[in-house]
Amino acid sequence: MALLKKILPLLVSLFTLPAFSGELEDYLKILYPEDSAASSVLKPIALPVGTQARIEETKLLKSGHYGLNLSILNGTYQNQNMWVSYNPALSHMKLYESLQNMSSRRTTSDFQSAQYIQTSAPLAAHPLPESARMKPVMEAIKQGNEAVKKHGAVGGPCADCEFERLHTRGADVVEESGLSSIQPKQTSENPVIREPINKTTPYGIRSARCGSRDGGYEECIFEGETSPGRFQFSNRGPNKIVPQARDGRSRDWVFNYAAGATQDMGISISDSPNGTSSQTQETYIMLFPRKTLPHIRVEGNKKIVTLPTGETVTYDAKTNEILSGVLTEGGAITAGGKNLQPAKISYNGNGIMVRVDHVGEEPRLNSRAKATITKGQQTCKVPVKDLWPDQNKNSSVHFRFPTDAEFEKYLKRTCVGNW
């Protein structure tokens, strides 16, 4: 009888889990196809009450529930990784923002800020298969190969050196995934690659000195820096994008890369129908992965811009209309008056675009609005303040995620689909 009392709660938990555990299993079959074929990934174990773990990865499922990849910190399964299901409305775990908070039992109800959990009831869990456990090793080998080859790139003895290739169960291992694996879409123009020199932008609001350059654009150097951190140009018409040439009517392009950092690399687009700031349609775009600083060069009648993804967009050097590349203009700027419309600009590259729009004000400081994230045909809308948390009017508007790895983790936690 005593034994039955001990195992009964465990049996109940395994057989009365919410239906979304099947949804998680479907996701794991897609995530680990080779292992799921052998059914190893689908054999659940039971995490006992009091199991503590760090949240390594999250996946928003179509039902609104989450799959959590946990690194177990105590008990029988310590140092192992497990996938579990999480239903915000019916939780089998307590959430904590830090280890210190977990030690002092200070829980949080904010799932987005939670970094650690502790089970409050027996919880079914799916151990990570061998292929997933090998990912850190594969990443280390990849980074080692890159470092060795970079060291020998200038004719040194190690130009062709490579760490031993990694194999498991007789099959080659895929070494890249997620944002880092996205390759730039090939266009008619070659990009100019300049690796970012910083991850974060350590400055607040600053003035900038701008000067004209041959080819009809300006470069700007921010206060406290010696290298450009922005370039810009304008389409003032008359052409199909700005139909009438008159004072105050323009489409202005600004490419930002302050401090040579990945954090705030973005594109500002201002469509002004009549020079009135209250009717100017403001758009801000960020593209991922952020592999290179933006760059501009002029060749004949073309301005060729390299975007952070390593993809290019080509403009007419005189009119500054888009001619080709991964950005397209779908029509004229807003006509003003009551007919205000966002810029008809789309991205058709291989990466991910974040876009915010607002009339008359900085779109990143529109705390009640949604930002639109797109990748191919996938779309996800998230609160603007999730991406730019400092919504103070005097904010320097720093993007929340200085690295692509941090942004990718947020995407997987927040957006449904294959991000």
Notable traits:
alpha+beta; 419 residues; single chain; 9-stranded antiparallel sheet; 7-stranded antiparallel sheet; 8 helices
What helical percentage do the residues reach?
A: 10-25%
Main sheet specs: 9 strands, antiparallel
Structural class: alpha+beta
Count of β-strands: 24
Structure commentary:
- With 419 residues, the chain is an alpha+beta fold.
- It is 17% helix and 30% strand.
- It contains 8 helices and 24 strands.
- It has helices at 2-15, 20-31, 33-37, 99-103, 130-133, 135-151, 384-387, 404-414; strands spanning 45-47, 52-60, 66-72, 81-86, 93-96, 116-119, 123-127, 167-168, 171-172, 208-213, 217-222, 230-235, 250-256, 266-272, 281-288, 295-299, 302-306, 312-316, 322-325, 327-329, 345-347, 352-359, 370-375, 378-383.
- Strands 10-11-12-13-14-15-22-23-24 form a 9-stranded antiparallel sheet. The chain has a 7-stranded antiparallel sheet with strand order 1-7-4-3-2-6-5.
- Strand 2 and strand 3 form a beta hairpin.
- The protein is elongated, with a radius of gyration of 25 Å.
- The chain starts with a helix and ends in a 5-residue tail after the last helix.
- The relative contact order is 0.10.
- Residues 6-20 and 157-176 have low confidence and may be disordered.
